[in-house]
Structures
1.
Amino acid sequence: MNTSIPRTLFVRKDIDGFFGLMTDNLMQLIVIGALCQSVCGMDASRVLGTILPGAAISIVMGNLFYAWQARRLARQEGRDDVTALPYGINTPSLFAFVFFIILPVRMETGSAELAWKVGLLACLGSGILELAGAFVAEYVRKHTPRVALLSALSGIAITFIAMDFALRIFSRPLIAFLPLAIILAEYFGRLRFPLGLPGGLVALGTGTLLAWGLQPFGFNYMDPGEVKNAFIHFQVHFPHASGYALWDVLRTDYAWKYISIIFPMGIINVIGSLQNIESAEAAGDRFPTMPSLAVNGIGSIAAALFGSCFPTTIYIGHPGWKALGARWGYSILNAIFIGFICVSGLVNLIFAVVPIEAGAAIVLWIGIVITAQAFQTTPTKHAPAAAFGLFPAVAAYAVMVMETALREAGKSWEAVGLDTFTAHGFHIYGMICLERGFIITSMILSATVASIIEKKFIRATIWTVIAALLSFIGIIHSFAINGRGIVTIIGIDAAPMFSLGYCIMGITFFAAHFLQKHGGRERR
């Protein structure tokens, strides 16, 4: 083993890498604050005093580990160009957990406290799956078409990530279009800014300056009172254990209610992290898979145990940081800065000073890239499978919009009645059935179509049998309407029509296999 290694912990290019990774992480914190408070109705004290300090634990721990890992690899191989794996809060899980777990619990029960506790359980479950996935990731990846995983992810990206922030941008074009142009120019046009400033930082800065600069002209985008309150109520919040909250929710029926969201998101996180490790290897840095994935899962578990609802993950983009010249110091700097921001109380000030529209373009770009990935990194012939997998997410987004509209109008699904919609030609039953367990449904539909495209009809049959079993026990497609809204019905024979329908599909594909094998003529 060559023990030659640079003596310094930092190189100049680590500063560039730090600004890029820090901007991404900071944007996640802003989004968490905005969604948890304005959408899910949580108190600022819960977000600033518990969730963000809990997130700090996982972010600091992970960044320091991956920095140590990179330095260790550099020592083993005797080179000074190793770049640490980027790490931070998982963006798709953030939105999935907010819109499909935390918000529904808040709407169903009216309790933001219970919604937070269920979010903790979701984060813990995701972390356990990620940790277990360190040992089985290769097997899952081998037997699940990539398009199935990416299509499910892109469905969330194009609706709950990209669409929501696109609407924010077009709601306030005066302050949002300039940051949008900057992000598009750098991320898609590869434009380099003076002094090597990252586009995300420039976008946040210009958007913030515009929002405050337009105040004298009657555009009241910002509230100086919020800034004053941030200074008045400045308080340091150290992480504290939240095991009691997890124990409380484990004793309720919520312990298994959202498994159809938690399980596929955990699998997606594992596969995504594995792909990012492979991406790093392609760029020249070969990190061991098992410990890299294990720490990824441990970070999410630690976040849940200390009050954060949001898993952390290995980020995409290692080759970009490597090309930039960052090594392992940028990861250390990110751990220090984000950890300090989360516990110091300065996040509250950032919420008050930086408008969400200033960073909306960054999240929009993330959503676009994730969606495009389903089509760009899979075989071209699998594009129909990727497109087919988008429908469940579109249905889920539509259901969420309709639920919000009904709630604001003082109505409920039960009071209005689904037949009111069907009487006007709107297929509301199909939309809600497609929405229930939509991430799993998306994966199954995409995998089935991909298998058919590959003429692997037996594999397509297996996927439809899986769908039949899941619908039979209510994991997908099963629902009922009551005073609490739309609820999933878990139990035997929960969605019999879907179970039977999938069985019919499976028989058809099984017959297609024999038709293809014994004299069937292939369509040209």
2.
Amino acid sequence: MIPETRICKECAAQFPIEQDDIGFYEKFDVPAPVRCPECRQRRRYAWRNERVLYRRNCDLCKKSTVTIYSPNKPFKVYCPPCFWSDKWTGFDYGRDFDFSKPFFEQWQKLQLQVPRIALLTKNSVNSEYTNHSSNNRNCYLSFSTFDSENIMHSANVWKQSKDCMDCYLASVEGGAELCYECVNSARIFNCQFGVLLKDCTDCFYSYDLRGCSNCVLCWNLRNKQYCILNEQYPKEEYARKVEELRFGSFGAREKLHARFREVLEKQALHKFAVIEKSVNVSGNSIFNSKNAHHIFDADKAEDTRYGIIAPDVKSTMDSYHYGFACELNYECHALIHAYDVKFTHLSYDNSHLEYCDSCHNSENLFGCVGIKQGKYAIFNKRYEESEYAALKNRIIAHMKETGEYGEFFPPQLSPFGYNETQGNIYMPLTKEEALTKGYKWEDLVPGTFGKETLKPENIPDNIKDIPDSIVKEALACVQCKRNYNIVQAELDFYRRSMIPVPRLCPECRYRRRLELRLPRKLWTRKCMCGGAASENGSWKNSVRHSHGNGHCEVFFETPYAPERKEVVYCEACYNAEIA
């Protein structure tokens, strides 16, 4: 059936409303969206300040705390112990709904009065500088990190990882240990600068390896060991060649990284998308899923559309960074253990919520902020069950009349400036563009410049020559010029793993890792496999291809844009070469 086509209210682009989408809207009794998927996602991005941290005093205990809210933000901010304590309740801020005024105008006044948690962190030890994280020990400047220990400068580390730095794992298939600068990898040990590694040990600057050990600058290998540039060596000769690479030298590492980027662009074979054990899906980095489309970083996703970072979700649509038992969710951000939740931000362990913010362990809430362990409440005021249902329906009818019902919160209500959020990382805007679109902007983002006490050119090249005193120095990023420092735990990690002190600040290292991940967008392309006459010249198993010596005629949806340099194959051609 031909999908219905609409014009985005925000960017004026055409976008489809699929028949499956309509069924979902009917199930949830919500109107079809008036914005395209990208503009809808931008709104959700604009509510996630994941990693821009400040210091301010808790408004309850008055102690200094780390927080995602700059001191000039007009909110009450409680440190995590005070927020989760029984010293206050969100019901103290309850109020009646005024049918003579718009919903969001009244909701914003409630939002400005109810305390907000400084950082969303639970059940963690010595992990003050973590956000959207729980059940961790000794973690530092790590975000969306769970059940892990001794993690530094990392993001989306989800499952029992230990002693890792500068990683973006995004995998529920298994953790990592003693790893550095690894991306989209699982069950790895002592690996550095790896992408798409699985069940690997002692692999460095490598791409798409499985079951491998002791490999350097390798790609597309399976169950190999002692390889450099895909050439296998005797164990003793391999060790000698690795020693000659001088891993402890910053200059040598820079050359290795540049060679690694060449491997990715010119030598490695790329499958159109990472999709495993899944049926009827589209997107990338998808595992154990079915009937799920336009989803990214998903595991056990079923009957889901337009989901980003979605482990264990079912019957959901248009949601971001949510999962671990989420079902029947629509237009949400930052949910865990959520059932029948719509238009909601940053809320864990809930059911039957709409238009709520920072509510936890609750059910049957509408338009609430900061409720913990509550039920049958509207605008933080309790009602009997029958009263609640009747009033909720009246408010929804009112919102439909004012044109407010059916979309995520407007950008004007976001607690953050757009430049503080993931929106400015994945869908960047200038200050003028952001303000024109109705987003906020924060002019006082943290960071110092020109205060370095040790210039990059004066840092010793080899980690063996780095003095203990470097932890007392202020360094300067060679890319953005921002000052940063090295803490003792970092220095210990670098020395143990023979890693030179980085010349990039943590934020620039994070953005460099993101460059190794594919965009959350799809293009229609044709397989590049040319059989025996393949123009890329790197792959030769044409006899194993179903299309023989001619060009493959398969088209697919892929996150590899047409102008990219990589060689991209359909799944059948990729498997014929790699398996």
3.
Amino acid sequence: MAIQTLNQMLSTHPEVLSNLKRFQITQYAIDYREALVLPSGALSTWTPPESTGRSPKDTVIVRHPELEDHIDWSSPNNIPLDPDTFHRLWVDALTVLWKKPRVYVTDRVIGADPKYALPVKTVTDFALTSLFTMNMFRPMPENISQSVFADKPFTLLVVPYDKIDTAKYEGELRKREDGTTSDMIVAMDFKNRLGLVFGSAYCGSAKKLMFTAMNYFLPLENILPLHCSANEDLKGRVSMFLGLSGTGKTTLSADKNRALIGDDEHGWDDRGIANFEHGCYAKLIDLNPEKEPEIYKAVFNPREYVENGVIIENCMTYPNGAVDLFDDRLTQNSRASYPLRYLSNVKLKGTGTHPSTIIFLTADANGVLPPISRLDPEQAMLWFLMGYTSKLAGTETGIKEPQTTFSRFFGQPFMANRPEYYADLLGNKMKQHSTRVFLVNTGWSGGPYGVGSRIDINLTRAMLDAAMEGKLDDVSYTENKRFHVNVPDACPGVPGEMLHPKNTWTDQAEFERRAEALAREFSEYFDQAYGSAGIDKNVRAQCPGK
């Protein structure tokens, strides 16, 4: 029914612009004042304040009985929506689009591997949204018929600047703190393969909706989706990097000696890994051209504007076209969308072999985790389930001590299935392909934040090189019995005393107190999040504090 109503709208609309060339959609965005052209040829745009980032509380999943065995409704990010409410919102969005002077349609795919590329049709009234899908989603491959999703395409409606008529949805949509009904929604209907962005002008809403859909569909096809970056060395050996914001995922995966496969989302099937994306959606705030020259050049290198396509979102821009990357008055979340081909060392094919090494990144502000440790399959499944890092003292009002943060699979808001689906797939693939997994702490040593010092990035890179090059395969290890990880007793280029963090502390009693407190937080969170989940007992036993 939903597709029928969409087709009816498209067939009766006076101006439907389908799969325009890059220069054409760019010109529409300029002609209708959706963006300002910068001297570099990039397009700069701004959104309303409520659309400067994702809106997790308005991101919902349509609750169908057929999904009950798959969706983890205990996750706070999996918010249910009644099917009838979604249908009415869908019809309302189509009504809005039908009244617009023109609509834009793109037909793209999510996924570089044609075996499981997901076709997605995006319909919107905003040219920049259409251009964004051309940057971020991949072109339709000629052999799309090979895909397991060839006859199961996804349809996405994006109505970014029109708001929901809240009078029609009292008691059905989220109540804000002021008592009013929310006028925006990001909704996913996995049963009918539909997505709706209504009232959110943040480009990332469309991107993350589609990747959440992939993260839902792929485990059901025995394919593991991962929120990670990936690169490969000159011998074709692949490494993957998983980590939350602030752990160094983007920085550490950008290596002049390794080709970037992708920086955010990948799938791992029986043939290897594949990037979901066609582009990058990078943070711009405080971007330093000396420390991150690749991103800077990708965004600001001069190109003819009609072929450029870089979208700069919510970055302070002046009438003369100058931008201030350090001005956060609009938002801390300024972004740039650009094609992967604008990077100098990138594997455009977007696929690689089975990963030889997986890196879990954590920034432990307590200073009690080893800077590097190796994980066996059960330990890796546990740390994958936990997705640990620290929120730093002083970064938010009222935080006086580092705060522990857990985000399952290093991307909890985007992983809708039951947790064991993802963890079991990781464990099985690790064993099948003899993949090494290392936990790398990019946080503090010699004491907690404010006392110790952050681990030097050059030492971290030395540890990563040793791990990825197999130099830690034959060294001896000591088990850290509190955190259930295996710590190398030697690592090339790294002082031996710092590998076991207690050695770097002058106050040994304080180290024990902090380490025990962190382990207890792990145990309590695991019981809360997974107490009733079907997690293997051998994985449960690897939880710190147990």
